[in-house]
Amino acid sequence: MHAARTDQLIEHDKSLRPFNTFGVDVRASMFARIGSIEQLQQVLSDVRVIDAPRLVLGGGSNVLFTRDFDGCVLKIEIPGLQCDDADERWLVRVGAGEGWHSIVERLINDNKPGLENLALIPGSVGAAPIQNIGAYGVELAERFDSLRVWNFSTYSLETMTSDECRFAYRDSIFKQQADRRLIVDVTFSLPRKWTPVADYADVGAELRQRNVMQPQAHDIFSAVVAIRQRKLPDPAIVGNAGSFFKNPVVSRHQRTELIDRHPSMVSYDIGGGRYKLAAGWLIDACGLKGAVRGRAAVYERQALVLVNLGGATGKEILSLAREVQDAVRARFGIELEPEPRIVGDGMAV
């Protein structure tokens, strides 16, 4: 009976095209939809899976497949939303398989603000902590309480605090130790005494254009959605993974030298003598905004975004990414680091 149930969970030679926002057409040797911890345990105990390479997949919005995956893809679809009152904050536990944007919108409509600046970021809730998603002045780590993971080594469920997650700019322990844990659910800490984060230039300009002087959470949510829709292509229409490169961080001395040579370069003071450079500006300055290489391109409205024009392979997109990196390095001496996980045959980097 156990084998029969497992056979129903595991599919073979499965196309991953519908499960990655780049729309790259690769296949997985094995594929299993995971809707509960019990299903996860069933799949992991299957003899075909035990020694096979595995890949945890959420919404597929932060991954670039360059080859077929010779292993088992675990497609996380664990649902759930539970809210608890904790004095000055709401504690909101969300299943890893829930869609990120739909949860943000649902919480705003339920008068539990705090995530509105992160609206319309593609992907699942379980994927959000992996790269500590952030946008328009807010990072996930600022609204985080804890999360639960399945530890593949101990074969058990564990709770991790913010410190244990080692959050940094677009980084966490889950990127540093990619295949040790699977996020099951995430608990957010949302303040009851909400104050708007509206000092990010684009958000402020959008609110002023709408004549909103004292924004509420739904105003910021609506503004962020409008900004992102203007700047970023819809993955359902044009394959992409959002921002492909991290904004590089440099020292004050490096920034001063760069500004002396490139006075119009865009940068942001992030404290501690460090500055974040606008990677999109760097790419644009290299003349690559809108560049087309076969079936892959740099998006004409936002140079940070690489797109699949239709039928591009992961290797074609990766080749374009490396061209962009080479150009920025040659002109500015800056290394651009990709945000998406690059996944090849049975391995990920």
Give the key terms:
single chain; 349 residues; alpha+beta; Uridine Diphospho-n-acetylenolpyruvylglucosamine Reductase, domain 2; Uridine Diphospho-n-acetylenolpyruvylglucosamine Reductase, domain 3; Uridine Diphospho-n-acetylenolpyruvylglucosamine Reductase, domain 1; 3 domains; five-stranded antiparallel sheet; four-stranded mixed sheet; 11 helices; 28% helix; 29% strand
In short:
This protein is of the alpha+beta class and 349 residues long.
Describe the model.
With 349 residues, this protein is an alpha+beta fold. The chain has three domains: 2-76, Uridine Diphospho-n-acetylenolpyruvylglucosamine Reductase, domain 2 (2-Layer Sandwich); 81-230, Uridine Diphospho-n-acetylenolpyruvylglucosamine Reductase, domain 3 (2-Layer Sandwich); 233-343, UDP-N-acetylenolpyruvoylglucosamine reductase, C-terminal domain (Uridine Diphospho-n-acetylenolpyruvylglucosamine Reductase, domain 1). It contains eleven helices and 20 strands. It has helices at 2-9, 37-44, 47-50, 100-109, 162-165, 173-176, 201-209, 217-231, 252-261, 279-285, 314-332, and strands at residues 10-15, 27-34, 54-57, 63-65, 69-76, 81-86, 89-95, 134-135, 138-139, 144-151, 156-161, 181-191, 239-243, 249-251, 267-271, 274-277, 292-293, 296-298, 305-308, 341-343. Helix 7 (201-209) packs across helix 8 (217-231). The longest helix has 19 residues, at 314-332.
